[in-house]
Amino acid sequence: MKVKQIVVGVAVIAIMGYLYSLPVKGLTKQAEATRGNAAAGAAPMAKANANINAASVSALAKPNIDAALSQEITTLEGKLKTAGQADKVTLERQLAQAWDSATQPAPAAFYYLDVAHSSNQMQDWLNAGNRFNAAYRVSTDTAAQAAYVANAVEAFDHATKLQPASLEAKTGLGVAYVNGGAMPMQGIALLLEVVKKDPKNHDAVLNLGMFAMKSGQYEKAVDRFKTLIAQKEEVEPYFYLAESYKQLGKKQEAIAAYQKCKDLMGDPVAGQRIDEYIKELKK
After folding, report:
1. Residue 229 falls within a domain, yes or no?
2. What is the pLDDT of residue 221?
3. Position 34 in a domain
4. Which pLDDT score is estimated for 40?
5. Within the chain, where are the H helices?
6. What is the block-wise mean pLDDT of the chain (283 residues), using blocks of 10 residues?
7. Measuring CA to CA, how many Å separate 1 from each of 32, 166, 232, 238, 275?
8. In this predicted structure, what is the pLDDT of residue 13?
9. Fewer CB within 10 Å, N- or C-terminus of the chain?
10. Residue 30: inside a domain
11. Residue 146 lies in a domain
């Protein structure tokens, strides 16, 4: 079992309750029916908060990572402060990769964004946008979330301008729009455009399934997650599938999906949480 997969599985369980407590603004069945009019009264996207930056999120993340890696990052930060322009991008990229290795998307995102501003390369914009979307998912700080969304939109907007046909950029931008709450239907429209061109697109299908759950459309969510599982059995879609079945009152299907999720995790602590969900369903 890959360490990354275990981390993802544990993160899914940890944040699921929080995801349910914050339904996507404007993302309801009624809004789905009136998608064409959604843009007219949409509020502007939030602007990035200058107080939430690489330094602030790095300081919060360092206590949660390996001490040796933390020291390595601190050394790189010190070099960055005195670096000339020629060395700056190299150091920023090294810092982004170091934070990636610690599975800390927020600080990685800010460094990738700095790199992208210098390079204006497609992959750098995608790296920044994807990390900001990931940071949004695991954060419970609403101010930080707003900053992550604003930066994700900026990054994916640049990416779509460089390559208008990029499905990865459209998916990321769609997710950011929905997360931001100001333009959820435009975001859903982008994701639907992606799956129309690529019905098995993993990220687009996964996020459409998650957004369907958050808007109470559990039958649609089940279809999305089953599409993913048919391609490859993974922890995350199985967990969301179980949650969707549970909300539909399909206990046996939910138990089976939870059990499969537990088997794929291979982590005893996370497995105990799954057992609690299963036990509750068997009452």
Report:
1. no
2. 97
3. no
4. 34
5. 3-21, 29-33, 54-61, 67-82, 85-101, 105-119, 122-138, 142-162, 167-180, 184-197, 202-214, 218-231, 235-247, 251-265, 268-281
6. 43 46 45 37 56 94 95 97 92 97 95 97 97 91 94 97 97 95 90 96 94 94 97 92 95 95 82 88 89
7. 39, 32, 15, 16, 19
8. 44
9. C
10. no
11. yes
SS3 for 90-116, per residue?
HHHHHHHHHHHHCCCHHHHHHHHHHHH
Residue 46 token pair: 């939030």
| Single-letter amino acid code for the residue at 113 | L
Query: Which of 222, 261, 221 has the alpha carbon at shortest distance from 238?
Result: 261
Structural domain containing residue 101 = 45-181
For 120, the enclosing helix (H) or strand (E) is: none
Q: How many distinct structural domains can be found in the chain?
A: 1
Distant-in-sequence, close-in-space partners of 26: CB < 8 Å, separation ≥ 6:
38, 181, 184, 185
pLDDT on residue 46: 59
CA–CA dist 171, 175 (Å, integer): 6
* CATH number of the domain where residue 49 is located: 1.25.40.10
Say what the pLDDT of residue 12 is. Answer: 56
pLDDT given at position 118: 95
